[in-house]
Amino acid sequence: MQVRILLLILGAGLTLSAPALAEPVSEPAGPTPVAVEEPKIEVHETTEEASLLSVRSSGFLDMRWTGGYASVAHLIPANDTPHLQELTEGNVQLKLGWADKAQALVDASLIHQRAWMYWGQGADGERTRLADHDVANYRPAALISEAYGIYNLGERLNLTVGKKRVLWGPGLAWNPTDLLNPPKDPTDPTLQRAGTWLARLELPMDNWSLSLVGAAKTTRQFSGIPSGLVWYPDNQPTGETRDERPHFALAARLYALVAETDLNAMFYMTQMYNDAFEYKPRLGLSASHVFWNALEVHAEVLGQLGSSRTYVDGDCVSSLGKAMVCFSSGKPVAGTTLLDDDGIRVKALAGARYQFGENAAISAEYFYNAEGYNAEQFGNFVTAATYRQQAAKAGVPTDVVSKAFGSMMPTASDPGSPQKFAFEPLRRHYLFLTYTHPQLADDFTINTVVILGLADGSGQVAPQLTWSVRSWCNLSAGAFITLPGLESRGAQVGGQGYTEYGLQPSLGKVFASMRVFY
Amino acid sequence: MKMLTSILAAAGALLVALPALADPTALDLMRKYDQIMGPENFDAVTRMTAHRDDGTERTYKMQVLKKGDDKFRVTFREPAAVVGQELLRQGDNLWVYMPNLKRAVRLANRDSFQGGDFNNADVLRVKYEADYDGTTTADGDAWVLELKAKNSNASYDKVKIWMKKSDMLPVKGEYYTASGKLLRKAEFSDVKNFDGIVRPSKIVMRNMLAVQRWSVMVWEALNTKVNPPATKFVLDDLGK
């Protein structure tokens, strides 16, 4: 009887032990596993390929109403700055997948917008209501943010062709190493979807990747639909500035994950792509790392020789008389005079993002722009702008003024994208501050962005409150407030101080929007 | 002789069986927990509902892909406002891909998962053996596995998990700060057999700092017979 009981116990023990002994051999060695009944885990290689075409779609309908006030006394004319604006965007994002072989994605929007209430300076210099008029930035448009296909040439090699946003730098508000995409709106991440037309070959490994990109500049587009890439089309619409040269960018990027740090090394060769440089090589580096599980620190640097910035000839603006001499002799007051300069110029951004317990985060980023104007160059720029304004008031034809002064303002905005704010740095030192607190009282998100020009204290503050009324509906309200800065730290021209953000006509805007997701 | 052979056989069998009858070590329990709650490879569909202070709730449906010990990828399928958002963990590195930005940024492990009461590591770092040292005690029908963080990547400083003695399945958990403050409580229930993996399919996580809040994670599907390609877990694949 005792033997029978003993055998029963032994039998039970053996039965319980068996599955533990049958665990996969890959299980690390250690103490004998506890003898309990465990489910058998079978691991199989995936041998069957999914043959079905997968389709996923999403999108949103966004309606935004904006009201603002523009000063007509500032150096940049207010004539084309509306005081009321309405924008409706219908967006669809379609993702197609063909097993693991290929994918296609389209992110496209139809945008209807209208703008009203323009003011400018009258003949007497007073604030005068202008008739509502057509401004290119406020026309209805189709916007193809992305439309591309990816074909997997092998397990570790894929080819992307189409329009895609490719971004490698870790900067949050600004990416000095991003030479491919339309510029981002640092105050609103939700409008940074547009990419560029490109072909990309990518070799993604576990801890490093190699990307080779050829990008084409959109030389002409109508309502957001491109009709010319790389070269200008043969037919020339009235008023278009064109040339016979190609416009493209080549880029190579090596990414590596080293010591839990994202590292990127980038090489660019641009040919009249987003600036006036021809066959210009540039190098970029970036890094991002999280410290103490809460603090993300990042940096990105772009180095180049020369500058594509338009600089004002100081001699031509030393007096009105000398400006007249330059003007009459056909010598440009402003031009891209440092294109072939041998001086090394660096654009660098360094910043940190601290994440609080409730998903709130604050970030601070410093941006150094070696292409920006120093105090003297900014003074020359402002002086030229005042002369330009005086020439226009005196009735000098626009084309003559343009020929004399050139394109003084950086023109980096994407005409196909309804940006709320365009950041085009004129000076050298900037600070970006961002505070985000999602799930505030569960359904509210506060987001505030401050852009501060450190040279004169001028900048922009953009607070925004979003209420997630339903999981499919957000209501937002926000403002863009111009910080005039310290005129005493600005350019002193004609006894008046001018700060960078004090040049722009807009003193402030408020907006309300509703976005419905589907 | 026959008697002696029987005794020797029985003694041999007893030697084999004894470890099985012994109390499990903390390492045994950790491995068991890791094995059923975070199998080596899987492709799963989960649904997380966050119950908020005001009595309302928000539900997120996501696809979770895991490869090996340290590669996770979560893709949000619902609601529409977060469709396309992705989380990627590779080792101690965590990124979030935001479709509106068309890019990924680095995250910290301690962030709450989609504003719910799970944190990112609860969902994306199910490998207690790698992050904790443990001890065991008995509590009625359950073993109590007490864990202390052994590296800075552990999401909690101290964890207690109750696992049933009968089937070694987790039934509840408590998660503490270094000072001993109770942060969260978990309840594991609705045991299901996912094609051979028997495990709780429902985890209720209660926020002890805001007791009106809790989140429920339900595993709707779990397929462990997959071996996802490594290229699914690289930064450049996010958004594809």
Fold and architecture overview:
The complex is a heterodimer of chains A (518) and B (240). Chain A is 11% helix and 46% strand. Chain A has helices spanning 2-21, 320-329, 375-393, 398-405, and strands at 53-70, 84-98, 102-116, 118-121, 127-130, 141-154, 157-164, 196-204, 208-216, 218-222, 225-229, 248-258, 261-271, 280-291, 295-305, 311-312, 334-335, 344-355, 361-369, 429-440, 444-453, 459-470, 473-483, 491-493, 496-498, 506-517. Mean pLDDT of chain A is 83; it is low at 1-50. Chain B has 240 residues and is α+β, with helices and mostly antiparallel strands. The mean pLDDT of chain B is 85. Chain B has helices spanning 2-21, 26-37, 120-124, 128-131, and strands at 42-51, 57-67, 71-78, 86-90, 93-98, 103-106, 132-139, 142-149, 158-164, 170-176, 182-194, 197-207, 214-223. In chain B, strands 6-5-4-3-2-1-13-12-11-10-9-8-7 form a 13-stranded antiparallel β-sheet. The interface between A and B is large, with 86 and 77 residues.
